[in-house]
Amino acid sequence: MTYCAGILLNEGVIFASDSRTHAGVDNFAKFCKMTVFERAGDRFIVMLSSGNLAGTQAVIGILKQRGDAGDGSPSVWTARTMFDVAITVSNAMRDVDHRDGAYLAESDLTFNASFILGGQINGEPMRLFRLYAEGNFIEAGLDTPYLQTGETKYGKPILDRVVTPATSPADAIKCVMVSFDSTLRSNLSVGMPIDLLCYKKDSLQVTMRRRFEESDPYFVELCDAWGEGIRTVFRQLPELQW
Amino acid sequence: MTYCAGILLNEGVIFASDSRTHAGVDNFAKFCKMTVFERAGDRFIVMLSSGNLAGTQAVIGILKQRGDAGDGSPSVWTARTMFDVAITVSNAMRDVDHRDGAYLAESDLTFNASFILGGQINGEPMRLFRLYAEGNFIEAGLDTPYLQTGETKYGKPILDRVVTPATSPADAIKCVMVSFDSTLRSNLSVGMPIDLLCYKKDSLQVTMRRRFEESDPYFVELCDAWGEGIRTVFRQLPELQW
Q: Dihedral of the CA atoms A218, A221, A222, A227 (nearest 10)?
C-alpha cells in the first residue's frame, strides 16, 4: 500500500508521500515515491506514485527519457499547461499498460499505477490532478482542495476538518503530517520516511523539501503534541446525560 | 454500508450502530441494527448487525424463534456462557447461508452478514466478539478492547488514540460518538440515527440506551466542541522550521 496526498492552497501546493513498497509482509522495501521535474523560472512539477512499483517506475522512466530527447516532441518539458502535462503522463501510463498489460493478465494482475500530479508552469495557475490507473484524471478545486491515493481513509477526517484553499501552507503541513501519523498507526503497509514538499505560488522552483525519518525530532514532537492535545479536548467534551 | 462498534471496558461495554441500509444511492432506508436479548438478573446480550439486510434479519429471526421455543434446546436464553452464545449465533448464520447461499450465488452474491456480539451472563465475565460472515469469530481483549464492522477506517484513529480497558464509560461514549461523526462525514452510506447502548458491569439489565436523531442537541454540541477543539489544538501545534 501507499499513502500520498497533495493539497492545493491559495498560497501554494503541499505534496507528501510515504516510502514503503511491499509484495507481502515478508517482502517490503523503501522507495521514494516523489518525483520532481524542475526548470527554475519555467516550470515546477511534482508526481507522487502509488501502485505496483514496476508500473510507476516504468511511467517515470518513460517521462524522463522522452523529456531528455530534447527534440521538441511532447514531454513534461514542452507541455504548455499543467493539463497538457497530465495528458503527457496519461499517455505514458497507457503506453506501459499497452506493453505490460497482457503479460500481467497471465498472472491475474493489472497495471494499477496511479499518480498525484501538481505544480505550475510560468504564466499559468498552480494545478493539482489525480490520475487513475486507466489514465483518466480529476483535478482539485475550491470545493475539494486536496487529493489522496493509496490508503486514504485513516488520514481523511483530519484533512476534511482543517483544510480549505485559504489554509496557510504552515497549517496545511501540520495537517498533512497528522494525517500521515494517523495512517502510519493504522496500516503497516504505509511506512516512514515521509517525503514532504511545499511549493510556494509563482516561485517556479523548490525551496522547501524535506525527508522525515523514523525518529525525526519535529515529527515526534508534532505527533506527541497532537496526541496530547486531542486527549485534552476529549476531557473537555460535554458528557452525555442519560 | 454500515458502521458498528463495540468497546469492552473494565466498567462495562459500549455498543453503537448506525441505521442506514442501502442497495445503491437511489435505494436506501433506515433500520435499527441493534438487537437486545435481556432477562434482567440473568443475562444481557447485544448484537450489532452489518451486511446484507435479508441475511442479518434472517439470523436475528432464527435466534428469536429458537429462543421462543422454550423447550430447553440451544438458544441465546439457554447458553451457559457468552462463548456459547457466539456459537449459537454462528450456527444460525451457517443455517441461513446453507439455505440462501446457492440462490445468492446465482446472482453473484454471497451471504455477507457479520455481527458484533457482547454482553454478560450471570456469574460470567463481560465478553465482546466479532463474528465474520463465515461464522468464525474473534474476541476483544486487553490489547484490543474494541471491535468494529462495516466502514471501520474513518473512525478508527480516534478509538486507537483514546480507548483502553481502563477508559471510563463516559469517555468511551464521547469517543465512539466522535468516531461516528468522522465516519458519517466521510461515507454517505453510513447514516443517522445512531443507536447507543452503555451496559454497566454486573447490572444484567439495560439502564442506558439512547437513539440520536439527526438534530440531537447533545450530538450536535459534541461534534461542534470536537471540531472547534481540534482546530484549537492545530493552532497550537509547533510549526515546521525549514
A: 160
| Average pLDDT for A11-19 | 97
Segment B197-219 mean pLDDT: 95
Q: What is the pTM of this model?
A: 0.90
CATH 3.60.20.10 fits A3-236, yes or no: yes
Interface check A199 vs B, CB under 8 A: no
| Complex ipTM | 0.84
CA distance B82 to chain A (A): 27
- CATH code: domain B3-216 is 3.60.20.10
Q: How many CB pairs under 8 A join A and B?
A: 112
Nearest 5°: CA angle at B235, between B242 and A219?
Answer: 45
Query: Mutate which of A234, A235, A236, A241 to test chain B, going by most B C-beta atoms within 10 A?
Result: A234
pLDDT(A27) > 90? no
What residue ranges do the domains of chain B occupy?
Answer: 3-216
Chain B: residue whose CA lies nearest to A151: B153
Nearest Cα residue to B1 out of B213, B194, B187: B187
